[in-house]
Amino acid sequence: MFYKLLLLMGVGFNVLAQLLLKQGMAGLDIISTNLTLFGKIKLLLFNPLFWGAILSYGAGFVIYAVVLSKINLGVAYPVASVLAIVAIYLFSLFYFNESLTTIGVAGVILCITGVALLLK
Q: How many other CB atoms are found less than 10 A from the CB of residue 80?
């Protein structure tokens, strides 16, 4: 049970990293800006949300590595991936006001169904 909770925590850090990265990059338009390469790198290096995302990815990676020492990869990876997909989809709907689509909902349902079939 402890490692399943750790898996959830690792997924939580992964989702947090995605959300921080999305928020941190909003409006920067790094590709089409007229800044030099150094200026573009500086934009990232002085962005606290970017660093928060990196730290969250790191924490999630370490936790996931610990989880893999006790849970089969064939279980841990699909569960973690689908949990992250569902959580990010829901956060993107409610926090970033992204659009709810029939295809998106169908995709989430298929992901959940696929993992449920794998775990049987």
A: 21
